[in-house]
Design a protein that fits this description.
single chain; 292 residues; 9 helices; alpha/beta; globular; TIM Barrel
Length: 292
Amino acid sequence: MVIKAPEAYKSKLVDRLRQISRGVSSPIGFSRVAETAPPAMLLIAVLPRNEAGLALAAVRAGASAVAFRVYGAQTELLKETGDVAQEQAAIGEALAAIGEQAIAGVVVGSNGAVTSENVIKISELGLDFIAAYPHLTPASFLDLANVGRLAILDHQGGQLARGINELSVQAVLVRTERPPDSPPEMTVLDVATFRSAADGIHRPMIAFPSWKVAPADAEILKNSGIEALALVGPGPDADEQTVEDTIRPFAEAVRKLGKPSGRRIALTEPAVILPRMISPVVGDDEPDEDDE
């Protein structure tokens, strides 16, 4: 098992996430900004089903990457998916349909543990990246050199961050653990948790929301040092038009964010200077009541 990431394969997703994490500096004088500058954030569409039409709809709407699924459990946003053998044909058809229009990868779901043999089979599907849950994935995943390696984390503080930083994981998808009485939308706790994760995890980060995400959340996540946003679903039976209509407002919101500022700048806040409160002092030149 390797600790330093094998870099023989250059994942397009990982490369773009790293560019966003570094940020794009402002031009000096008459210098020109590179025409290939990345967006402020990447949008990754986690498709409800492994279908070519849904993948194309996500790309049309502005997603930079699409993620298929294997071993996926049924949720309110996603349809259950089978193992590699069951999903291989559908994923291959969708890959052929989108071609070079977007980056394509796969999320290995939580519907059972995956064997080392299946990890190799997934890596041979011709995808750019694999995202997997560490507790369900054999350690041989860390040895893969022909695909980008992403971990799906429920953020659990400093110990986990340190471990991830020392493994050959190239990027992480982070889900926040929310109290059961949390409202549907993003909360202060969600923002604080993501900022803490961005400060501790030295890898590009993708927000994997556990709340009902809204387009306005993109700016908050960018300012918290997050490089990408995963848009999940939006429903097990969603059609192409629904997928397109769901993603498009997020793509428009990201376009308005301009160029990436980089994680270091996002996490650097200016010092808050409070006005000094000075108690009024009675001067000698003020009239005395006796003089009046």
